[in-house]
Amino acid sequence: MNTEKMLLWALAICVGIVTILSVPKYILGGDAFMPLAIQIFSFLLGAAFVLYLLIAFMNKSWSKYSGSGAIAFWAGIIAVGLLCLTGLLILMATLGMHLPQWLAQSVVPLRALTFWVVIAVGIILLSLMLFPKKSTA
Amino acid sequence: MKAKLIDLTRCTECRSCITACENWNKLEPHTIGKSASEIKASYEASNGAWELSKEDWTVVTLDPNNPRNFYKKQCMHCDDPMCVKNCPANAITKYDNGAVVVDPEKCEGVRLCVEACPFGVPVFDESEGVVKKCTLCYDRITQNPGLEPACVKACPSKAVTFGERDALIGKAKANPNIKYIYGGGEEYDSSVIYASAVPFDQIGFEKAQIHGIPNLLEKIVNPLGAAAVVGGVAIAAMHALKKRENEVKKSGGKK
Predict the structure, then answer these.
(1) Does B240 touch chain A (CB under 8 A)?
(2) How many CB atoms are closer than 10 A to CB B147?
(3) CA dist B111 to A34, B59, B99, Å?
(4) Which domain holds residue A46?
(5) Closest Cα of chain A to B54: distance in Å?
């Protein structure tokens, strides 16, 4: 397994855990579930995402995907990017850094929207894994 | 729903409300971390604290250029509180009786509520790692029979009153001295109502700003999210069907 694939799996696992633990709060409106685990896996997610972006940029990974795969790739990149961005804003607030009021008020709804997109991408990825394209080589 | 009416035409800035709040909530005197000269300056300027802090959940603000401009600052106990909506830990609750209360057991010290509050009310307590603010004396008003909030009980000029929201609004509107009302459904939905004889900007009171982006995001997040999931299911189904179609074609229509 090459580094890019390993990072993709790391991203998928971290996003999966963060999403599953966050859905009760952000989508169902209940209490947050295992907040420490969310924090730990969010840090890992951020690190894996930065590394993946670097490798994907060097390998021009987007050219490998077409059709449903391309949609899942770009939607996934946007969703994970937003997840990392909102996570970073929450971290900044926690560290006492001043955020503009409109931005502070946008973090939670933006994160909720991101989780919906992550679920959508997850469904597409599941379909791609269950019904893989056969290699023509 | 209950509410608190702060009638600024009756307020004498005696600060009994501040003392009562500190006594009831067992708050420390607002001297911690301040030098002697700072404490002296604070008392000379406003007979106490002039900004909300972990030890001061209500203050009487003071305009040094015009001593007649002051108001009792505290949590507005909004109907649609930004602090509640933006707490990732779900630690803040808006109760049916109007109170917005932080649960210190659940608070993780994220501080998004501090940044998101349009009135700049919640304050982070560094020593305890939790956010603090006025509770509308939730522990008093939920007793049976219910008690008034401590500041209401202590106010000698009856400038702060507590009761049913509609009744308080009616009372303020019937008062010929009151020209401006903010809160309780008048311009803003909240369980704290300000009544004044002069425009609020003259006394330094800043009304809540409504920001377009978070307002829009809040409205579209669930429909757009549901649409994204439906789209994802459709793409996944199309992919599966295409795969099946290709397999049927390859097998010469036998499958």
Answers:
(1) yes
(2) 16
(3) 19, 21, 20
(4) 3-130
(5) 15
8 A C-beta contact, residue B186 and residue B193: yes
pLDDT band at B42 (very low <50, low <70, confident <90, very high): low
B-chain residues within 8 Å CB-CB of A120? 228-229, 231-233
Orientation of helix A3-26 relative to helix A68-94, angle to 10°: 60
Nearest CA in chain A to B230: A120
* Domain around B229: 211-255
Q: What is the band of A136 on the pLDDT scale with cuts at 50, 70, 90?
A: very low
By Cβ distance, the residue of A32, A68, A102 closest to B235 is A68
ipTM higher than 0.85? no
Q: Which whole number is the average pLDDT over A97-112?
A: 94
User: Is A30's pLDDT higher than 90?
Assistant: no
Are A84 and A125 in contact by the 8 Å Cβ rule? The answer is no
- Look at chain A and report how many structural domains it folds into: 1
